[in-house]
Write a structure and sequence with these properties.
The chain has three domains: about 100 residues, Helix Hairpins, CATH 1.10.287; about 50 residues, SH3 type barrels (Roll); about 80 residues, Alpha-Beta Plaits (2-Layer Sandwich). By secondary structure, it is α+β, with helices and mostly antiparallel strands. The protein is rod-shaped. The chain contains seven helices and eight strands.
Length: about 270
């Protein structure tokens, strides 16, 4: 019995000498590492606040960073205890690869949503054109962006193509240029037509003085002499000015004797 007790005590002593320092070191690393992880997570959150990151994205990014840091800490602690992590990391990597391949499309949309929410090429309320659709951004979700078209149709677009494709944002700049094209008949007075247009632009207080409106003869077409007019307005006045000026120009041309021709063809018969 004494021999067994001595042997047991000897084994316990060897275990303490062998694993004691490793265990103490692992505990110290875990405590210090937890403090560092907490500090890094807090610092990352402050950076997100300073960058005015979308509120819907902050909790996810904070959780993601915290999870990654804690995973690294756990692997470090287990390695200090002598546990071989090579096989575990290999299995984890293989599982991650398999899941990534199975969800490649979904992950692409997820990554696209993160990029959009971080870099903000557009925001809720902006009027954009992307992926063959034009409308007002109603909602930006982590996987999709929802547009509301002018005819009140809802369009749901995956964020993956939006983050990698071209997007036209009509709302970023405070002003927009309104382009018009008017055709008058051959023989009509171009200067008179130009004067009518400038008078209409001057009367409309929504049209900006700087940059100044422009009217030029753009084309001698088959059936008409085409004038191009350009004005600058505030973004919110774009469509109202576009429709109003078209209507007022039609009435002013009629009142001023300027003819708006329709397509026609002259046929000459020869014997």
């Amino acid at each position: 019995m004494d021999i067994n007790i001595d042997s047991l005590l000897s084994q316990m002593t060897n275990i303490v000498y062998t694993y004691g320092p490793k265990l103490i070191g692992a505990i110290i690393v875990w405590i210090i590492g937890s403090i560092i992880v907490k500090w890094l997570t807090s610092s990352f959150t402050k950076v997100l606040d300073k960058r005015d990151t979308d509120p819907s994205l902050k909790p996810f990014l904070k959780s993601l960073v915290n999870m990654l840091l804690k995973t690294m800490l756990i692997i470090s602690v287990l390695s200090m205890l002598g546990i071989q992590m090579t096989s575990f990391i290999a299995v984890l990597g293989a599982a991650g690869l398999a899941i990534g391949m199975a969800l490649s499309g979904t992950l692409q949309n997820f990554a696209g949503g993160v990029i959009i929410l971080l870099f903000k090429p557009y925001k809720i309320g902006d009027y954009i054109e992307a992926q063959g659709h034009t409308g007002t951004v109603k909602e930006i979700q982590i996987f999709t962006t929802i547009l509301l078209k002018l005819d009140n149709k809802t369009v749901i677009i995956p964020n993956g193509p939006l983050s990698t494709g071209s997007v036209i944002n009509y709302s970023i700049e405070p002003t927009r240029r309104v382009d018009f094209s008017f055709g008058i008949a051959y023989g009509d007075n171009v200067d008179e037509a130009r004067k009518i247009l400038f008078d209409l632009f001057k009367e409309d207080k929504r049209i900006l003085v700087d940059p100044a409106p422009f009217v030029g003869l753009s084309e001698l077409a088959d059936s008409s002499v085409n004038l191009t007019a350009r004005t600058w307005v505030k973004g919110e006045d774009y469509w109202d000015v576009f429709f109003d000026i078209n209507e007022k120009t039609y009435n002013a041309f009629n009142a001023g004797g300027i003819n708006i021709p329709f397509p026609q063809m002259d046929v000459h018969l020869q014997k």
